[in-house]
Design a protein that fits this description.
This is Transcription regulator. The protein is of the alpha/beta class and 338 residues long. The protein contains 11 helices and 13 strands.
Amino acid sequence: MAATLKDIAQSVGVSLATVSRVLNYDRTLSVSEHTRKQIFEVAENLNYTKLKRRPAMPDKQLKIAVVQWYSETKELDDLYYMSIRLGLEKRSEQRHFLTMRTFQNDLNAIDPDVDAIIAIGKFSNQQVAALARLTPNLVFVDQDQLCHGYDSVVTDFQFAVDQVVDAFWAHGQHRIGLLHGAEWTTDKELEVSDPRLKAFRRTMTARNAYDPDLVFAGDYTNQSGYEQMKRAITQLGDRLPDAFFVTNDPMAAGALKALREADLAVPDRVSLIGFNDTTIAKYVFPELSTVHVNTELLGSTAVDLIENRLQTGRSTPQRVTVGTELVLRESTRSLKKA
């Protein structure tokens, strides 16, 4: 069962109003970054289910460096990566492994005696090579590095996007807009395009329905979602589609705000589906329909791959692809089954 605002407020020791405003990215609220971080982490943790414990490796406590490409502050703006990290840390605790976190690919912070590295996010070839010099036991989460010889845990984006388009299409919503993101690795050597854009273009083109005028690029933040939806409203006017797919939940929450300000009712005028199903999807208004990504499984699978590699001496790389589930809530009321 999902955590309530009251559960979170009691755990952190703040008011219900403070929790609600933080989870809705209200930057006018005067609250410390520490409290904000606590609220997000407690919200994520309270939604986790306990995994069955398995015996730890008997010989020694393994040291795993967790390299997060986001900064600690930016991680709060996109809870997807925080959720992966929390799932990874929970599985490591169950195995009695020691995890050491570093943010923004700070290699100087990594213990030289580390047994393995789990890299979360996107990394350039130069960064991958630098990590490999520290240990051959590498797992990448959310980036496919199988072709370079490294274990990888990824999401099936094509399947997820097909689910979204199918859902809209089944209810006669054929003009579908897209808000997507793009960003760079921390060393600025590699631009990382949104894989959901490629999947969306492929799926819509196959239906002779892809319209580049309905596609808007942002940077995955709440503010970007707000700005890009305002841009769509201004540019398209009466041609604004009645359905939008937004490629992460923070952007979708920002898009909801822009639609409210323009008096465009959700879902009556515009249906909206986000991506990742992070905590904020349940606390925005209206509640956000979204694609659920099992971030806990992504993180725990990375730990399992490390454990397998170290126990068996396996050198052949593996790629594990995790599926998704479309969760329909109030932002797509018309799509709900009767």
